[in-house]
Amino acid sequence: QVQLVESGGGLVQPGGSLRLSCAASGSIVTINAMGWYRQAPGKQREFVADITSGGSTNYADSVKGRFTISRDNAKNTVYLQMNSLKPEDTAVYYCNAHGKVATGGYHRGFDSWGQGTQVTVSS
How far apart are CA 8 and CA 24, in angstroms? Predict the structure, then answer.
């Protein structure tokens, strides 16, 4: 199993910044991609950004130019720097990772989620 632990959420005023972190642990062989999703009250979970092991990134249109995703492969950790935050960015942010783990002498795929961290943008 792979565990993802997020941190860095909180309350911030509009225009402010927050940095989320997500650390993966377990019998990890490789992580192909790590990413962030968010879910606002009454809405479906939506994609925010992701990054491959090679550093390729993708962003939702709503966060392009404001959010930056980065990754430390040695630490199996992904970060989301969020600037110019807006009230509509308020949501629970979830980390996701998928790749391969070692189990019983074999490698198998995994797709894991963190427990979520609350981000609230309000004056």
Answer: 15
